[in-house]
Amino acid sequence: MAEGRWRRCPEVAVVDRGSRVVVLPLADPAAGRPLVLEGPASAVWHALDEPGTSREVAGRVAHAVGVPAAEVEADVASFLLQLAAVRVVEPPPDDTDATPATTSSC
Fold first, then answer.
1. Which 3 state secondary structure label does DSSP give 96?
2. Which stretch of DSSP H or E encloses residue 12?
3. Tens digit of pLDDT for each residue in 33-86?
4. C-alpha dihedral over 81, 94, 4, 93, to 10 degrees?
5. Are 58 and 72 within 8 A, CB to CB?
């Protein structure tokens, strides 16, 4: 079975300054808080310019920061789950690693 693709949520306000990205989930404005992504975190955001599997996103991040993909795969996968929990990215519909808190739509 093919691995699903992570994608950015459509209802997110973004201020992108390259190495610093500020995102704000708009699905629930009362609960949303700005999230500042810097360094490798902003590399993950930029890697999601196009939807991708966890492995594809990790490969894009690795290329951006100049390290082997194997060195960042676990951290990227974990960070994607964190981003899903605050509703700025959407996990793949078939993601077996996502917890119930991260499987709700954007």
1. coil
2. strand 12-16
3. 999 999 999 999 999 999 999 999 999 999 999 999 999 999 999 999 999 999
4. -70
5. yes
How remote is the C-alpha of 50 from its chain's centroid? 11
Structure tokens belonging to residue 80: 């994607």
Q: For the ranges 4-8, 60-64, 74-78, 99-103, which has the lowest average pLDDT?
A: 99-103
- The full DSSP string for 48-88 is TTS-B-HHHHHHHHHHHHTS-HHHHHHHHHHHHHHHHHTTS
From 19-28, 36-45, 58-67, 90-99, the region with the lowest mean pLDDT? 90-99
Residues for the chain: how many in total? Answer: 106
Q: How many CB atoms lie within 10 A of CB 13?
A: 13
